[in-house]
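Protein modeling request. Please complete all fields; requests missing the sequence field cannot be processed.
Requester role: graduate student
Desired output: 3D structure, token encoding
Chains: 1
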Amino acid sequence: MVAVARPDVEVRAMRREDLPAVSALETASYDFPWSQGIFADCLKAGHPCWVLWMDGAIAGYGILSVAAGEAHVLNLCIGEAQRGQGLGRHLLRRLLDIARWNGAERVFLEVRPSNPLAKRLYESVGFSEIGRRPRYYPARDGREDAIVMALEMAAGHFQK
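Delivered output (160 residues):
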């Protein structure tokens, strides 16, 4: 799916007052969610934290860390009711723009093998699998590996 510019969608910097809504969206989306405190810590640390605002509410969020010519997508989530509309791609592209503006030449992320839709989204913008982190994520039946993916920004692999 190609992200389409939509006048009803705004991507803006996350604010402290957004934390309860972001945390609620995280809890509704994941079996092992980040706590509201983790989101607050990301804001305090100065990580680029963004929300996707649609129809008067937060419909998604993304968090990035950037340092030493590299970036890491720490968290990207679109609410269940808004999935399948290209909003994840729209938000991911914004995070990649921010990474590039901050001098990142490479962007990393981890994704669960049990989340093939997210993996396909990342591949569709140019990420490729570079390895695995064994038993990285908590899972209902113990632990789940993480697929480690990377995007080389400088090499022009980024798909707009």
